[in-house]
Design goal:
Elements (H helix, E strand, L loop, with lengths): L7 H17 L31 H27 L3 E7 L5 H4 L12 E8 L6 E6 L20 H12 L4 E3 L13 H16 L2 E3 L1 H9 L3 H21 L12 H14 L9 E5 L8 H8 L8 E10 L2 E11 L9 H18 L8 H14 L4 E3 L2 E2 L32 E13 L5 E13 L4 E3 L8 E3 L2
Parallel strand pairs: 1-4, 4-5, 8-14
Antiparallel strand pairs: 1-2, 2-3, 6-7, 7-8, 9-11, 10-11, 11-12, 12-13
């Protein structure tokens, strides 16, 4: 019988029997009196004490150690590479510069009143001095250089310090290209210029590479833990794409979305975007994610190809994951060959992309080379890969976008640097013989790290469709 005419009532009846059996086996908690559409609500999620997840206090301690190492290791090289003597980062409470947010101790939820962080390069022998023109010192990282009782005017104190240090150039975070490097608000820029006067104002420069370089560069201590962070994300995704969560004919895509949200809440881990779950199935006319639910409905059925996009923020670092699963029909032991080969095609697009990673190339150059290689291999690729780190759609070169495969002006012109991480996000479109040669979009996303000489996936990548049930 065609998929669109399947008897949903029959599936719900079968699901009731399944729930009862599993209850008596002790698999579910409080599921005996649940209606079929309440199934997901009664499913267990990860215990909060999941192995490998330190306490909130331990996480904060580790993050603070990372921050001090980053400030000591990265800032001098970034400032000297950019050719600036001083870097000012200015923000107010609840209107934080994206860079300043990443320089606050882990127990600080925001800036306090107005904060002016000053980096002053005193040369290789003395290093980079760090100061805060703020009412409070910023932990043990930026000592306060302002006594409001002695000098009530905060901006006047900023000007005094700058005159004393006498830098030849003063970088501020203003960018036409990168939102993450554009954190200085108009009002604060105006007040800074008024305080400095004409001679010092002329020394102000904007330099994207300082903010972007700081945000995109990962240090060894972070990478030592990033695999564990990714492993947690992958385990959550894989459990959501299993019979533990999905009962065909009963579970909806929304049920799975909120299972992910509830699981993250149990683990005291935050999402940085709302998860999305969609299905493709034989006979549908579109693979546009925005239209899939309208055409397919949101009940997951046998024979469906299920796609999940899942975002997680843990210990200040982001993960971004897309995986796919196939819902087996009765007596099926695996997914149809055409679907399996479609996933392999997406893997080949991944290879075409990462084969072309090279320090010094722009995001656009990498995109063009990767697409050429993939197309010459007989693939139909769409590449929309982005940096990841402190932000999900992070700082660094854009390598395509969903709607633009001809390169991205500005962000795509930025050049790839060593010690940076990327979400390898893309898809391949393939005709599936078992679905009457219907075209299917095979969408994958997985995080990886570029050392400067080589690329690797931080916690591996999906190379086989997950099966529901396993």
């Amino acid at each position: 019988m065609p998929e669109k005419k399947m008897n949903i009532k029959k599936y719900k009846q079968n699901a009731v029997v399944l729930i009862a059996v599993m209850f008596y086996l002790g698999t579910f908690v409080n599921a005996a009196n649940s209606a079929p559409n309440e199934l997901v609500k009664s499913m267990p999620v990860f215990a909060p004490t999941m192995p490998g997840l330190p306490s909130l206090q331990q996480r904060a301690t580790i993050q603070n150690k990372w921050l001090k190492q980053r400030l000591d290791l990265l800032i001098p090289d970034l400032m000297r590479e950019a050719g600036v003597d001083m870097w000012l980062i200015i923000a107010r409470e609840y209107n934080e510069d994206p860079v300043l947010e990443t320089m606050l101790p882990s127990t600080w939820m925001s800036a306090r009143r107005r904060m002016v962080l000053i980096f002053h390069d005193q040369g290789k022998n003395k290093g980079v001095e760090r100061l805060a023109v703020a009412r409070y010192p910023v932990g043990d990282l930026f000592p306060s250089a302002w006594d409001p009782d002695a000098q009530p005017d905060q901006w006047a104190r900023v000007a005094e310090i700058i005159k004393e240090k006498n830098p030849s150039s003063i970088a501020v975070n203003i960018s036409d290209t990168f939102p993450l490097a554009d954190g200085l608000s108009v009002s604060q820029y105006r007040q800074l210029k008024n305080a400095l006067g004409k001679s010092l104002e002329e020394r102000l420069v904007s330099n994207d590479s300082l903010a972007i370089g700081w945000l995109e560069t990962r240090i060894p201590a972070e990478m030592a833990t990033y695999q564990s962070i990714m492993r947690v994300a992958h385990r959550i995704v894989e459990r959501g794409l299993s019979e533990e969560v999905i009962t065909p004919g009963v579970t909806t895509t929304d049920d799975v979305v909120w299972w992910y949200r509830e699981t993250l809440a149990q683990l005291k881990v935050s999402p940085w975007c709302q998860p999305s779950v969609s299905v493709q199935r034989a006979g549908m006319s579109t693979f546009d994610i925005e239209k899939m639910v309208l055409e397919n409905g949101n009940i997951i059925l046998p024979g469906d190809l299920v796609h999940v996009d899942f975002c997680m923020s843990y210990m200040g670092l982001k993960t971004d994951t897309q995986q796919m699963a196939y819902v087996r029909r009765p007596n099926e032991m695996s997914a149809p060959k055409g679907l399996r080969e479609g996933l392999y095609a997406a893997n080949k697009v991944q290879d075409s992309l990462t084969n072309n990673f090279k320090a010094g190339l722009s995001g656009n150059e990498i995109l063009f080379a990767a697409r050429k290689e993939a197309i010459n291999s007989g693939l139909t690729p769409t590449i929309y890969t982005h940096p990841i780190g402190y932000h999900g759609h992070g700082a660094g070169p854009s390598i395509g976008s969903w709607e633009q495969q001809n390169g991205s002006k500005g962000t795509g012109d930025y050049r790839m640097r060593a010690n940076t991480a990327y979400s390898i996000e893309l898809n391949a479109i393939e005709a599936v013989p078992e679905w009457n040669d219907q075209k299917v979009r095979f969408m994958l996303e997985v995080d990886g790290y570029f050392t400067g000489n080589s690329f690797y996936y931080i916690d591996g990548r999906q190379t086989e469709l997950l099966l529901i049930p396993r």
